Amino acid sequence: LINAWLQLLYRQRVDYTRANRALLFFESNMLDKKNITIPEILAREFADQASLATFLITYQNYLQNQNIRDNVRQTQMAQHNPAFVLRNWIAQAAIDSAEKQDYALLH
After folding, report:
1. pTM for this prediction
2. Tell me: the pLDDT tens digits for 61-71?
3. How far apart are CA 38 and CA 53, in angstroms?
4. Are 30 and 36 in contact (CB under 8 A)?
5. Under the phi-then-psi rule, with left for phi > 0, alpha for psi from -120 to 50, and beta for the rest, what region is 101?
6. CA-to-CA distance for 94 and 50, rounded, in angstroms?
7. HSE of 94 in the Cβ direction (CA atoms, 13 Å)?
8. CA 26 to chain centre
9. If we measure between CA atoms, which residue out of 4, 12, 89 comes closest to residue 54?
10. Is residue 21 within 8 Å of 81, Cβ to Cβ?
11. Closest by Cα among 91, 63, 93 to 55
12. Distance in angstroms (rounded) separating the CA atoms of residues 56 and 89
């Protein structure tokens, strides 16, 4: 399952951090045989929605087979997947500006 997820992220050129964080918003009741509802925060990361939906069906089956409740999984995922990640280029820009007494990027 993890390999399928990582391959999907790689093939679609999706940011791993954002996608892992967005996956926590998926709930096991969002899919049924006729209807697929993908959380917007997750859907907007992927150009190929069909591939994402295929993965989510597999993921949903795994969660159900393992009897993993959404609230427990979501709490664990939130603890291990940061909502914000400081990018080096952003940090460097803020440092460079601060050295010039421009603190706008720090507010």
Report:
1. 0.73
2. 999 899 989 99
3. 8
4. yes
5. left
6. 39
7. 10
8. 10
9. 4
10. yes
11. 63
12. 33
Token pair 């069909």 in the structure block, residue: 50
Distance CA 82, CA 85 (A): 7
- Count the residues in the chain: 107
Instruction: Please give the DSSP secondary-structure letter assigned to residue 81.
Output: S
- Distance, CA of 42 to CA of 20 (rounded, Å): 9
Instruction: Give the 3-state secondary structure of residue 26.
Output: coil
Structure tokens at 34: 């006729």
Residue 69: what are its φ and ψ, rounded to 5°? -75, 145
Structure tokens at 46: 């992927």
Render pLDDT for 15-72 as a digit per residue (tens, 0 to 9): 988 899 999 999 888 877 667 788 898 999 999 999 999 999 999 999 989 998 999 9
